[in-house]
Amino acid sequence: MGARAFIAGIAGTVLTDREKAFFREAEPWGLIVFKRNINTPDQLRRLADSFREAVARADAPVLVDQEGGRVQRLGPPHWPAYPAGAAYGRLYDRDPEQGLAAARLGARLIAADLAAVGIDMNCWPVADVPIAGADAVIGARAFGTSPEKVAAIAGAAAEGLGEGGVLPIVKHIPGHGRAMADSHYELPVVTADRATLEATDFRAFRALAGLPLAMSAHVVYAAIDPVTPATTSVTIVREVIRGWMGFEGVLMTDDISMEALSGDMRARSSASIAAGCDVVLHCNGRFDEMCAVAEAVPVIAGAAARRVGKALAWRKPGPEIDVTEAHRRFAAVMAPVRADEAVRS
User: Fold this and answer.
1) What CATH number is attached to the domain comprising 207?
2) How many domains are there within the chain?
């Protein structure tokens, strides 16, 4: 049997015997790790290795959310702290070329951190375009408030990750920036008309349609599908993400255990796949929920398998870098932003 169309989380810092047995049987496509799963570089590398051993696939993806700022799972004292996306945006406003170079270099350094511990996919960059008054769940995670600027910086960050051998997962397609609620806790409903969405929120993702993977938004876009969030909306996936945006990469859900979605895990998983998502993401590590997801999703095959294969070949590893020197250069290029922040504070 091939890999099954879901990504699992686990409870602790090592795989339990029950989790190992489940992974051997269910064969999830990938594993996602959170702070609860991370202690030291050696421990994290062993965890990644043990997952791949359990599913008997050396290329099984291991994912993390490593954006910088408040969304950074690997952090001090073992890993550097990186700036939030808005910092690259402020540098871009001073000097666009320097802002793009900083985003590419920061991402390259993040990739070096991740690759060293066996993580080969990062749920970043964020291409959401927030508006005034939107919920703070995106906030400083965004690179800016114009789709052109966001797409440019996100593209540079994706390049940096790819050069370091790590696949970028752009999020949250087709756009979470206009949401007035946090989809972790409730379902946001965006009421903007389609023309406005295509000129703003959707536009940034359209410019990034060549990226290998994207994570869906648990958001209702009332002008297009007034009932169903993008993750489980056939209309949004077919007409907007695959259609107007032209995204041909692997489409994975955001965490299906978030409160924005309704129904049990089996129903949520089935609806996501039926809508056109290729892979379901389940993050909380609850064993009973993982079992339900595994029962609901198919083995990756057909068009989904072709997209997965193409995505895995997207990485374009560049030459090895001197990490110490690269961090020195990164600190120097980000210094004007830090100086501005110090003045404002």
Assistant:
1) 3.20.20.300
2) 1
The per-residue pLDDT for 317 is 83
Say which of 225, 254, 255, 278 is annotated catalytic: 254
- Would you call 184 a catalytic residue per the annotation? yes
What domain range includes position 221?
4-344
pLDDT score recorded for residue 341: 65
Question: Whole-model pTM?
Answer: 0.96
Catalytic residue among 49, 78, 182, 184: 184
**Would the pLDDT of 345 be above 50?**
no
pLDDT greater than 60 at residue 268: yes
pLDDT band at 343 (very low <50, low <70, confident <90, very high): very low
Would you say 251 and 241 are in contact if contact means Cβ atoms under 8 Å apart? yes
